[in-house]
């Protein structure tokens, strides 16, 4: 167990966080599994009583995050890998969303991840380095109707994580933006807040729902081996798309964006900046 890594995973009670926790434990590592509701972790804790510590944590509570990270670091004497995975979905058109919904959404998906990053960095530096995985989305590079606010939070986390990677690399801390593809995580059910629909948007809403389709997404456990391999890399990338189909989608979106820029290049170049 001398070489066992210590993980802190937020949003670990279900979905991707749960899959990552199970993979780390199966690999012989130790895990502090954080979630607002740790009840679903009882069975896993019973299976790994010496190597799993459930931690009740609301990432939107900055003071609670700092206190929780101290408990997490003390559980196994430090932290090696931190997975900033906690997140939620705000589903609906931008005009429909209330101020309360938007602020609560950003408190979890953006600010919560920032609080965790701030709290864990002293511990990673004390370890002489470590890994910080910032879980975002393959769709964070552009907005899409009905999930625009979700994309906005992930895009903001993308940007701040790129900056953070530059800031902490000199301390031996490696930050990777992990752009997850579509997995069956329960995000669109248990993790979703929906806006009150406005009738004027119903045609577009119907169109978007048809576009999403009924395709069955792969289970989150299928993404875990990729994350385990990523963590094992001595020089990991600052950004990684997780998912073969998602990789193709992102490349296509990038091509379309480049074509759009090129089509308006003459107008862009009329300004000297």
Automatic annotation (TrEMBL):
CDD domains assigned: 17beta-HSD-like_SDR_c (cd05374)
Gene3D superfamilies in alphabetical order: NAD(P)-binding Rossmann-like Domain (3.40.50.720)
PANTHER family named in the record: SHORT CHAIN DEHYDROGENASE, SHORT-CHAIN DEHYDROGENASE_REDUCTASE FAMILY PROTEIN
Family according to the record: Belongs to the short-chain dehydrogenases/reductases (SDR) family.
Pfam families reported in the protein's UniProt record: adh_short (PF00106)
SUPFAM superfamilies, sorted: NAD(P)-binding Rossmann-fold domains
InterPro entries, per the entry: NAD(P)-bd_dom_sf, Sc_DH/Rdtase_CS, SDR_fam, SDR_oxidoreductase
Name of the protein in its database record: SDR family NAD(P)-dependent oxidoreductase
Calcium is among the record's keywords: no
Source taxon at top rank: Bacteria
């Amino acid at each position: 167990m001398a070489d066992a890594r210590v993980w802190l995973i937020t949003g670990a009670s279900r979905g991707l966080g749960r899959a990552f926790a199970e993979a780390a434990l199966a690999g012989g590592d130790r895990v502090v599994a954080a979630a607002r509701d740790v009840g679903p972790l009882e069975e896993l804790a019973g299976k790994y009583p010496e190597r799993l510590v459930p931690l009740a944590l609301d990432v939107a509570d900055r003071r609670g995050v700092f206190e929780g990270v101290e408990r997490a670091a003390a559980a196994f004497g430090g932290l090696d890998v931190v997975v900033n995975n906690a997140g939620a979905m705000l589903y609906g058109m931008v005009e429909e969303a209330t101020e309360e919904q938007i602020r609560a959404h950003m408190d979890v998906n953006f600010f919560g991840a920032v609080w965790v990053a701030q709290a864990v960095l002293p511990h990673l530096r004390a370890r002489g380095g470590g890994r910080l995985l910032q879980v975002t989305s393959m769709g964070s590079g552009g907005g899409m109707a009905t999930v625009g606010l979700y994309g906005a939070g992930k895009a903001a986390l993308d940007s701040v994580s790129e900056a953070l990677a530059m800031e902490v690399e000199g301390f031996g801390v490696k930050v990777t933006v992990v752009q997850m593809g579509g997995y069956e995580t329960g995000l669109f059910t248990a993790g979703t807040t929906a806006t009150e629909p406005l009738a004027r948007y119903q045609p577009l809403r119907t169109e978007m729902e048809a576009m999403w389709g009924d395709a069955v997404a792969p289970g989150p456990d299928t993404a875990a081996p990729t994350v385990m391999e990523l963590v094992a890399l001595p020089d990991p990338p600052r950004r990684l798309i997780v998912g073969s189909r998602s990789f193709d989608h992102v490349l296509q979106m990038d091509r379309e964006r480049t074509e759009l820029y090129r089509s308006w290049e003459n107008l862009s170049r009329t300004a000297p900046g």
